[in-house]
């Protein structure tokens, strides 16, 4: 039942992303009105702990005045300019330099987009452009993983390995091959060790490259720790093995750090935690704490040099977005990164992550908790019908959805991914606030347990 005119207007005219549109029509949206710290408030004044930092993204929490001031200052000085056809402006040049300083070694060149999906679409085009430039026009296929999320535009949505983003949209396009999701708890065979599981995944990778023909396989893309697929931490040795095989067949390694980047795992980039040395790195979300839309593609020099030569030959590097490298977004990103460094939030995220995981571990004996996973300030609790057999609830996802809805009543915003409950709180959260977040989680879990029974 819709209770206020804002909800009615929204339902009548606004098409929402990643939403069951008929369910929205029936129930109406929760209208979020304001935010402060880790809290948001709806238009009826109800308080919620934003345990997902919005969409895994508001690293500094809500109401950070320094970001507001940085945006205001830039809006007053130069609210817009583009970087096409040999124009530049200070915030984007400074941010490009800053990102190359923070990123894993060798990523020296940066291209800016407005969103993570645009960035991944750009990666696909850059890799194709690169391989055309160096005379390998056949080397165009991408390897991605089931459960991976890389956005929803046509190319990025093809890299994504989640059916909900593809069903009905004629995706994925045929340039992508999806490999198994690296989730030992669910995909490990009875009696299989974690190491043997890793070997099986690596064999699948190598077999796929050989079956497709290494001369046709251009790149492997993966999130160091998968986010939207359910906060999946890969098994031991996985990334080292992936890189070894990719190097053997001259396949570029692309790290999608859109969620992992800027401290989420307790290191500046997830690549450090997982030991990845990518050829291309994609970042977004916490780059501005999502106060402004911005994403970036970082690449190694050898890719850039081939692209630069090609642009000279073709007359132009014919790729770009009107609002890419936006001066306000890049100014906000510079201030956001300065705050992360000044407050040592990367180290803090590691400490707080350990605190959050210790708190979550107390639920390990609960009869419906199958697996608790994550690294740093990102986690998921997988709820199962039967702990011993790992049997899922029927239908799969029903309990997760119920949990998500019900958590609102306890003043908690989490995400249900299937029947896994994800946490990704702002990195400015305190120990006391983590306690309160887990208290609200427990209250919801108690209600859901009673409902299941
Ligand atoms: N890559 C990853 C790992 C993501 O988690 C997301 C969004 O959640 C994207 C890419 C797409 O970003 P955007 O929603 O800004 O297009």
UniProtKB/TrEMBL annotation:
It holds the Pfam family Aminotran_3. The keyword Transferase applies. GO terms for molecular function: transaminase activity. Keywords: Aminotransferase, Pyridoxal phosphate, Transferase. Its cofactor is pyridoxal 5'-phosphate. InterPro entries: Aminotrans_3, Aminotrans_3_PPA_site, PyrdxlP-dep_Trfase, PyrdxlP-dep_Trfase_major, PyrdxlP-dep_Trfase_small. Belongs to the class-III pyridoxal-phosphate-dependent aminotransferase family. This is Aspartate aminotransferase family protein.
